[in-house]
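Sharing a chain and its predicted structure for anyone who wants a worked example. Both blocks are below, sequence first, tokens second.
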Amino acid sequence: MKFDSSNKAILALSLSSFCMGVTEFIVAGILPDIAKYFHTTQPIAGWLVTLYAIGVVIGAPILTIPLSGLDRKRQLLINLGIFALANLVIALSAYFYLTLFARLIAGFMHGVFFVIATITAVKVAKAGKQTQALALMVSGLTVALVTGVPLGTFVGQIFGFQAVFFLIFILTSIAFISVLIIMPNNLAGSKTKIKYLLFALKVPQMLKVYVITICTCGAAFVLYTYIADMLLNVSGFEKKSIGLILLLYGICAIIGNLIGGKLADTKGSIMALRLILLGQVVVYALVALSAYHPITAIINLCAMGFFSFGGISPLKSLAMMSAAKYTPDFMDSSISINEGAFNVGIALASFIGGVVFAHLGIVFNPIFASLFALPAFVIVLKSSKII
């Protein structure tokens, strides 16, 4: 395959990744508007985040199985088609429970996508460029934070949150057409079975990796899911400023993602995670103090974006190395569980964040975000280069 064709295929995956990222993260920026539209509270509306994450957790390991016998192109087309339709339902829905159901379906497809896309990106990449291909594919998520989420927040505040999901439907349809035209037809699937997932859940070393992923990825969402309320009611920002603040957060997330990847390459995944998790524990807790002043709130939020996304590359690297060492006969299953673990963290953290917000108040969410990251920090402190 020619290099330029490879790049085009990976860009199609990156566009799809962008759509997934906007769909997952956008609710945090427009949660007050959604709660108002459906005449409910923000903690209840926060279930739109939690159910999406639960869908990813189920989709990544379970729903990849019935698709696994198909070639990768067909897998992606089915996946993106259902994802597009789910977002169209959200755009048209006037009922909260229908919207919840559609978010769950979208979450299913999100989980399936990143398992398929991770394998596909490696297969279409030029020899020796597999890691760069993975980075480009995953970059859609961070680009979604930098551009998609802030712009989506602006669109949602001006035209209503439904307009955001209609735009996601259009972009996903473009990604679907791109995959249809660009993606090669000769990428065979790999049949997986439920028993392989069970095997992958019984390996103690992999269980440690899953816990690290859950805590590292999830911790920020104890606070981030409800960040709009903190910025409005504690820091004193105007509603129109939220999109710009989230833009700054996203820029710092991209920087953190790049530096986290470099740290993993130069220092190893465990050392990188030690530094990043130390940053998470300290920076998240400090938001409880910095939130009361607009300038310190912005500075601390930028640091939060840096450390929350700095762990993604080291986590994926650690999972791949550990899976190759401890589960060589069913690596795909171990990796798919770890992909699900990313959103186990988000679902659990969003749920805890909603409980804390409802019963203690938003100012306690930063403390619980810090505590959520602490178990992962303890595990990596006691670990060697590979778990």
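Comments welcome. The radius of gyration is 20 Å.
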